[in-house]
Each structure stands twice: as C-alpha cells, then as structure tokens.
Amino acid sequence: MEDTSTLSATKPIRCIVKLGGAAITCKNDLEKINEENVEIVSSQLREAMITGSSSRKVLGMDWSKRPGKSGISCDADDFEDQNLDSSSFVVVHGAGSFGHFQASKSGVHKGGLNKPLVKAGFVATRISVTTLNLEIVRALAREGIPSIGMSPFSCGWTTSERNMASADLSMVAQAINSGFIPVLHGDAVLDDLQGCTILSGDVIIRHLAAYLKPEYVVFLTDVLGVYDRPPSEPNAVLLREIAVSVDGSWSVVKPTLEDMKTQVETTVAAHDTTGGMATKISEAALIAKLGIDVYIVKAATTHSSRALSGKVRGALPEDWLGTVIRFVGEGNSNC
Questions:
Q1: Biological process GO terms, please (predicted)?
Q2: Closest CA to 190 of 97, 98, 119, 92
Q3: Is residue 100 marked as binding?
Q4: What is the phi/psi pair of residue 223, to 5°?
Q5: Domain CATH code at residue 208
C-alpha cells in the first residue's frame, strides 16, 4: 500500500520542473556537469519566478568558497528588495552521467543487498547522485533561488518490487511552506521485496504532481521534444502535441499519424537503469491524465524559457518548438 503524508502547502504549486540528466550533464563524460546549460537553466528559472517590481540584481545564496575565489561576500541590506515567487516551484533532476554507471555496473536496480557488490554499488550510486544534487542546488542558489536539496532515500521513500510503496512528502510540504524550493533527484532506495532499486526522477515527478497538483509540468531535455524515432535519424519528426485519454493511453495529435512514416519508437541507452524516453512518455501521460499539461522541451533555449514562465499554455504558438502532452478525456487512443 502506497503511503503518503498529509500535505499542508499553503500556496498552490505553479510548476514542477524536471531537469533531464542528459541536459544538465555531459552524458559521454563520467560525472561531468554541463556547466553552460545548468547556468542558463538556473537563470531562466529565476526569471520565471520574478514577481512584481522585484529587483533584477542577483543576490547569490551560495556563500561557500569556490575555486579561484579568495573569499565570500554578503551585503545584508541588499536582501530587503527580493521578491521571488519561489515557493510555487519544485525541481527534480535526473542523474545523467552521475549514478547510472555505478548502478548499472553493480546491478543496484535489480536488487540484492545481500551481495557485497550491490551494497557497494548502492553506496557509490548515492555518493554520485547526491554530489550532482549539491551542485544543482548551488547553481540555483547562485541565482538567488532559495533551494534545498532533498534525497528520496533520506526522506524515507521506498518501493516494493520497484513500484512506489512509501513516499513521505511532509518535508517537501514544509519546505514549500517556508518559502524554499525543494530540489529532489533520482536516487537509490530500499525496496521491500528485492532489497533495493533505482527510483527515477520521472517517477518522482509523477508522484509529486498527483499530490501537489501543479498548474503545469516542464521536462527539460537535451532534444527539442518527443520525436517519432531517435532524433539523430534522418527525417525524424518532432511530435508537437500528444493526447492522453481516460485509460491513460496516448496518441499523436500534431502531426497526425498519417503524416508520419513510422510509429513512435522509444529507445533506452545501455547504461540507463531508469527506462529513458519510454519511462518519460509513460510517466508524462499519467501526469496529463490528472489534467495537468506536460511540456517536453530542450533545456537552455528560448523555448524552455517560455515553457517555464507559462507563456505557451493553451494553444501552442507556431514558433514554439517542443512537445505538449495533455488530457483529452473520452475517446480512443492508439499507442
């Protein structure tokens, strides 16, 4: 039985943002962050949160020493003019080149904590993903965003045969109430039946969306959106709009299937222990079934900036490149 805490968030959630692992890390370089993308995305998030006549001056909150810096500085008076609507956002990020190698090498996602290799891999995976989480929190904090890193394992999230079993959302709710942005991540967690597994960021977002009821969800990826086949292939078609019906199945609205030469394909990288694009689409469909529009868009672009700020809600602008997945109610849908 799935266990959740009673939420008491005092403000409605505007948006849950997923920072895709392939967008925020260099996926072919082990444990290397895509510094440029992370910096741009952090800035775009700050812009999306600015309300009223808030100062545009960035007041950093990472007061720790950084390489190449002699010290830290903080002018207390500057913080009186800050007005970020931060508590209406929640951030979840994937692992990318952090964690996946360790999990795949040791078989953490398959369970078996009684095996020394799996137990070692569990520790190694969590070291890797929490290291990335800290760096994402620091990047957001440097943009003046009051971010708090939260690990599902430490918050008591567990699974049963790889399905969500327990998710204590009390700390997430308290952070939101206190004006912080919770920053969660894909994590190695305990499993009631197989000992342990990997809980993906996409599953975490679906669970958060069900209880926080955001106005919309944005997935930031390393490609423009969902394609009918791997985007590196010739003539790959960007799917602009996907409709989800009552039974949770989905079909392509724009372009129509008649305009496409193939059915939709999903691929998973050999080292990906969380399901890749196949999981992303299925989890997004479950979110859309709740009546929450899901936007999948390339990170660090003008298109991602518009999606984060809510400027593409409703009828899609013709010049916006990305994919929206939304609920359409009754009707047949072919997968």
A1: terpenoid biosynthetic process
A2: 119
A3: yes
A4: -130, 170
A5: 3.40.1160.10
Tally the domains of the chain: 1
Q: What is the mean pLDDT of the chain?
A: 86
Burial 69-83 (b: 16+ CB within 10 A, else e): eeeeeeeeeeeeeee
User: Residue 280, annotated ligand binder?
Assistant: yes
Question: Is residue 329 a known part of a binding site?
Answer: no
Cβ atoms of residues 155 and 189 within 8 Å: no
Establish whether 60 is an annotated binding residue.
no
What whole-number distance in Å separates Cα of residue 264 and Cα of residue 41?
A: 29
Domain that holds residue 197: 3-52+82-329
Peptide bond into 255 cis (omega under 30): yes
Q: Is there a binding annotation on residue 222?
A: yes
CA distance 313 to 185: 26
Q: Is residue 58 in some structural domain?
A: no
The pair of three-digit structure tokens given for residue 169, joined into one six-digit string: 């959302």
Question: Is residue 59, in this structure, part of any structural domain at all?
Answer: no
Q: What is the CA radius of gyration of the chain?
A: 20
Laid out side by side, the sheet with 216-221 consists of: 147-149, 181-185, 89-93, 15-19, 216-221, 293-298, 323-329, 241-245, 250-254
CA dist., res. 108 & res. 198, Å (int)? 7
Strand runs labelled E in the chain: 3-4, 15-19, 89-93, 147-149, 158-160, 163-167, 181-185, 187-191, 195-199, 216-221, 226-227, 238-239, 241-245, 250-254, 293-298, 323-329
| Residues 184-234 pLDDT 10s | 999 999 999 999 999 999 999 999 999 999 999 999 999 999 988 888 888
Strand-pairing partners, residue 199, are 187
In a domain, 69, yes or no: no
